[in-house]
Amino acid sequence: MAVRLLLGLTLALAAGPLVARFTRRAASAPPPRSHIAETIAAAAVAGAAVALWAPAVIAVGAAFVLLGIPAAAVDAAEHRIPDMLSFPLCGATVTCSVAAAVAGQDVGSGVRALAGGAVWGLLLMLSYLLSGQPGPGDVKLAPSVGVLLGWLGWSWVLGGLIATYLLTALAGVLGVVRRRYSFRTGQVPMGPPMVAVALACGTLAQW
Questions:
Q1: CB of 93 closer than 8 Å to CB of 63
Q2: Cβ distance 32 to 47 under 8 Å?
Q3: Which of 169, 166, 160 is nearest to 141 (CA)?
Q4: pLDDT in tens, 171-190
Q5: Is there a contact between 54 and 69 (Cβ–Cβ < 8 Å)?
Q6: What Å distances lie between residue 63 and 86, 91, 165, 180, 198, CA to CA?
Q7: Which of 113-122, 128-137, 179-188 has the lowest mean pLDDT?
Q8: CA atoms within 13 A on the CB side of 157
Q9: First to last CA, the chain
Q10: 44: closest CA among 21, 66, 71?
Q11: How far does CA 201 lie from the centroid of its chain?
Q12: Could you tell me which residues come within 8 angstroms of residue 106 by beta carbon, excluding any fewer than 6 positions away?
C-alpha cells in the first residue's frame, strides 16, 4: 500500500504542471499563485488516494485528478464550471468505464456506471429546471460523478448525492460565517463538493 501511495503521489506531482495549465486556461482571469498551488496540492493528495483504487476504476480516478480538480478550483473562484473541463471529463469517465467493463467482462458494472451517470445528470437537470439550482455547470459535471459512483454500486450513487448536498450546505454556512458568500447574492459553488465526494467515495469503496 505504501508503494502505491508513493507512486500515486509522485505521478500526481509530475502531472502538476498539466493540472495548473488546465486551471489557468479554463479560468476567465489569471488565478493567484496561491490558488494554483492549492490546486496542485489537492491533485497530489487525490492522486495518492486514487493509486489505491481497484485497477478497473483507476483511469476514471485519474481523469478526476486531471480535469475534475481544475474544474472544482475554477468553480470555487468564479462560481462556474467551464465546458472545456466538464465535457472532456464526462467523455473520459464514460470511455474508461466502458473499456474497463469490456476488458474485465463485467458488463453489469459498465451498465450500472452509465445508468448512475444518467441518474445524476437527470436529477440535477430536473432540479435546475424547477428551481434554477444548482447551476448549469454543475448539471454538466453531474454525469461524470454519477458514472464513477454507479460503477461502485447503487448505494454509492444515492449516498454520494446526499453527501454532496450536505457538504455543499456545510460549505455555504461556513462561507457565510467567513463572509465569503451571501444568502442574498450568488450561489454556493457545488463543483468542489461534487468532486470531493466522487474522490472520497472512490477511495472509501476500496475498503
A1: yes
A2: no
A3: 160
A4: 888 877 777 766 565 578 99
A5: no
A6: 11, 10, 23, 29, 12
A7: 179-188
A8: 22
A9: 12
A10: 66
A11: 11
A12: 56, 100
Alpha helices in the chain (DSSP H): 2-14, 16-26, 33-50, 55-63, 69-78, 83-103, 107-131, 136-152, 154-177, 191-204
Can you read off the three cell numbers belonging to residue 69? 480538480
pTM of the model: 0.93
Place of cell 450513487: 157
DSSP secondary structure letters along 80-124: ---HHHHHHHHHHHHHHHHHHHHHTT-HHHHHHHHHHHHHHHHHH
- Sorted by sequence, the CB contacts under 8 Å of residue 33 that are 6+ apart come out as none
The cell for 24 is 489557468
Q: How far apart are CA 57 and CA 180, in angstroms?
A: 35
Amino acid in position 40: I
- Other C-beta atoms closer than 10 Å to the C-beta of 80 total 19
